[in-house]
Amino acid sequence: MIGAESERAFTVLRRLYRPLYLIETPIVQTGLETAELIKYAANAFLAVKITFINQMADLCEKAGANVHDVARGMGLDGRIGRKFLHAGPGYGGSCFPKDTLALARTAQELGAPATIVETTIAANEARKEAMADRVIAAMGGSVAGRTIAVLGLTFKPETDDMRDAPSLVVVPKLAAAGATIRAYDPQPGHARQLMPAATHFAGSALDAVEGADALVLLTEWNEFRALAPERLRAAMAGNTVLDLRNAWDPQAFREAGFQYLSIGRP
């Protein structure tokens, strides 16, 4: 997307992006206002899509349905597509939170409120709070004096980016409720500065779950997918697992002796 006010600017930018054009990447020329709205609207639409499937996951839990199958069925419709239909603890990162807020504020100031985006922002923030409440409920209504292992702190795998990560809401809320937090993330640099001071940073996933009463998966790093449930069960004091990314096989974890809870799956 090239937003500019003069033909000279368009010419310079077309030359700059010419290598992309040579491999048939579409280039769209617009005015500045249109280019900005394209960027905000695209990211806001994806944020809406994520929030929608999260709410469908909640409905699935009440109705006895499976959100994985719901998402797959929706995604087979070419008008919808399968991407960004993964239920979880809410979106974070550098783009979706910033761009949804910017679009909502711009729309308000111009007198054309984007209420669906405003609702998405509020629902996503509430989602993160609700994830901490799920952990507390799974522990019988209180985590005071309990040890909670948290795997994954960044907003998504394969990055050290902590911007608007669900962990920034979930972990402090659990700590404030009296839990002892043992956390592990493959790239913990920024997380160390942002988690509650009493958080114990483990050197590995198995170290994090050692003696824990419950395990919470917050970010689905690939290395976590390979963890054997039997080894986790042997290391833990308790048997509660909350898979907030639906990354693990429910049957395998239940056969290993876990009380396994996930998102939108019976």
UniProtKB/TrEMBL annotation:
Q: What is its EC number?
A: 1.1.1.22
Q: Which GO terms describe its molecular function?
A: NAD binding; UDP-glucose 6-dehydrogenase activity
Active site annotated at which positions? 95
Per its record, the protein catalyses: UDP-alpha-D-glucose + 2 NAD(+) + H2O = UDP-alpha-D-glucuronate + 2 NADH + 3 H(+)
Spans through the membrane: none
Q: Which family does it belong to?
A: Belongs to the UDP-glucose/GDP-mannose dehydrogenase family.
Which named protein is this? UDP-glucose 6-dehydrogenase
Originating organism: Muricoccus pecuniae
